[in-house]
Amino acid sequence: MFAIHHNSPGSRTFTDNLVAFLRKMDAADVTHQEHHKEKKEKDQAEDVKPAKEKKEKKDKKKEKGKEKEKVEETTDVTKLRAKLEKLDAKIDDLKAKKQEIVARLLQLEGAAAADGAPPTSG
Fold it and tell me: What are the start and end residues of every segment in region (Disordered) (predicted)?
């Protein structure tokens, strides 16, 4: 296989070569980590928006909130009926989803009971 050479004053052993290699790898890894950290910090610094932009964004949110009328403040009957119909539609959709889930749950529990195993909680 491999011939084992005895150490001569100027030669390096396999262990010495391995140690040197691992030190280089550690140094390269540290350099890579530092570079990655600097890049991440730079990206975060770019993500920070100026205060003026943040304030404009808050103002837009306030305007959006003002546009929505509260139910108590609404005096238009057609708007209230439209809101009510919209809520009814959402409720019907949720009831349909609930029925699907209950049916699937009963199906799974029935299959588990048929196998003789107790139903699992999940």
Answer: 30-75
- Structure token pair of residue 11: 């030669």
Residue type, 57: K
Amino acid identity for residue 62 in this structure: K
Domain residue limits, the chain: 13-49, 75-115
* Most confident of the following: 4-8, 40-44, 111-115: 111-115
pTM, to two decimals: 0.38
Q: Are 113 and 107 in contact (CB under 8 A)?
A: no
